[in-house]
Amino acid sequence: MIGSIRREVRIRRPAADVWALAGDPARLHEWFPGIVDTKVDGTTRVITLASGVAMPEEILVNDRTQRRFQYRITAPLFTHHRGTLDVIDLGDGTCLAVYATDADPRAMALVISAAAGRGLEALRRRFESPEGTES
Q1: Which fold has domain 3-24+56-128?
Q2: How far apart are CA 2 and CA 109, in angstroms?
């Protein structure tokens, strides 16, 4: 059985600003805690964790119009994985960043979801802090 979890955070910045960072598959390490490097070659992305472990992924969707990024982890640790990041314009100069994970084994959905929650909070802080570097 597949585990499915979703996390979301409202960010007080326009969706286009947040998407410029969060939707760029090569910049994940700039905002997602525990990831120290990101390499993209076509539809393949390899993230390197702080532990030094390299995790291969396949990019499934990178839709700038819908502001949706979807990928799957291809490491043998997973029977199934699909991660989705949506950045939704709320029409008032803010946006909702939503990170969903489906995984088998189910326990891995919990692990990824916890990390995704920390990643979304880091993204929010980056854009909302007075010394934030994103413009």
Answers
A1: Alpha-D-Glucose-1,6-Bisphosphate; Chain A, domain 4 (3.30.530)
A2: 8
